């Protein structure tokens, strides 16, 4: 990468970081390119040159975060941690994703942006599902996940949770305690309501 390309990437990254900061204060639909440009100390023309539109900027910002989270999940699985350690790392990573992306922004990207939804679906099918299957199989091999429940049943449960993302995001937003809510959801997934660990 030459100096011009490196500088362009630095500017794009600064713009996307600015978007993330502004999303903590403003709904995605209320963000304006003029406000993003002013806060990122770039011109509106620069944003349009690099991204084409506000929607494309939001999409790329979200997609970068999702890919980064998937990369982190893959790294956690590759670390050969115990199931409990891996879940703790995943929980921390999930919290960071939700801190970076307010629930309203996630809903907009996943449910209203068809291009982004297609990207997420492809990433989920091609990378996330194989990683989760590997995670489950390795957990079973180490005796940390019961053999009484098939991998297919666990995957079906995860698919069900994925399909209920919109109401989950609403509950998350209303909970008022992001960390506790995410912790409770992870606990319920792994230990059920009996709480047996």
Automatic annotation (TrEMBL):
InterPro entries registered for this protein in UniProt: Homeodomain-like_sf, HTH-type_Tx_Regulator, HTH_TetR, Tet_transcr_reg_TetR-rel_C_sf
UniProt KW keywords: DNA-binding
DNA-binding region location: 32-51
Gene3D superfamilies hit by this protein: Tetracycline Repressor, domain 2
Cited Pfam families: TetR_N (PF00440)
Domain HTH tetR-type: 9-69
Protein name: TetR/AcrR family transcriptional regulator
Lineage of the organism: Bacteria, Bacillati, Bacillota, Bacilli, Bacillales
């Amino acid at each position: 990468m030459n100096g011009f390309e490196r500088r362009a990437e630095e500017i794009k990254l600064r713009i996307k970081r600015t978007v993330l900061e502004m999303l903590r204060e403003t709904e995605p639909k209320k963000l304006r390119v003029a406000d993003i440009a002013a806060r990122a100390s770039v011109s509106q023309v620069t944003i349009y040159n690099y991204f084409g539109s506000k929607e494309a900027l939001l999409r790329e910002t979200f997609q970068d975060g999702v890919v980064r989270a998937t990369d982190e999940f893959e790294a956690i699985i590759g670390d050969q941690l115990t199931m409990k350690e891996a879940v703790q790392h995943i929980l921390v990573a999930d919290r960071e994703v939700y801190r970076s992306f307010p629930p309203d922004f996630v809903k907009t990207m996943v449910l209203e942006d068809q291009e982004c939804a297609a990207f997420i679906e492809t990433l989920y099918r091609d990378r996330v599902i194989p990683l989760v299957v590997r995670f489950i199989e390795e957990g079973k091999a180490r005796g940390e996940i019961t053999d009484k429940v098939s991998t297919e049943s666990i995957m079906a449960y995860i698919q069900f949770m994925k399909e209920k993302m919109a109401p989950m995001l609403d509950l998350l937003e209303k909970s008022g305690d992001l960390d506790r809510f995410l912790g409770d959801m992870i606990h319920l997934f792994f230990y059920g309501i009996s709480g047996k660990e």
